[in-house]
Amino acid sequence: MSILWKRTMLALLIVSIADGELEQWCIADEQTPDGELQMALDWACGKGGADCSKIQVNQPCYLPNTVRDHASYAFNNYFQKFKHKGGSCYFKGAAIITELDPSHSSCQYEFHP
């Protein structure tokens, strides 16, 4: 890599950080088995306090109807709701942070700075 490219990337990173918090979403890790995702999803939508109403039948984030997609929505809802109160995007290793907005068609994933 050229030194110019490295300096440019460093400058962009500094500007991004100086401009405010990077946008981050919490999604299901593609390597996590569905059974583990389901347990984490159940916790997030139950004791965790995530709002999972949008992943119910006939709601904007129901489709695609997969454990992975529903878990991603629930994990992100929890993360956005509680990240400034000590909440994390861990879910026993079932989730990861992404800086790419996972929203699709009518399903909009929340982001709170």
TrEMBL record:
Its main location: membrane. Pfam families: X8. It comes from the Eukaryota. One of its GO terms (cellular component) is plasma membrane. It is a lipid-anchor; GPI-anchor. Residues 1-20 form the signal peptide. Keywords: Cell membrane, Disulfide bond, Glycoprotein, GPI-anchor, Lipoprotein, Membrane, Signal. Residues 24-109 form the X8 domain. It is found in: Cell membrane. The keyword Transport does not apply. This is X8 domain-containing protein. It comes from Salix udensis.
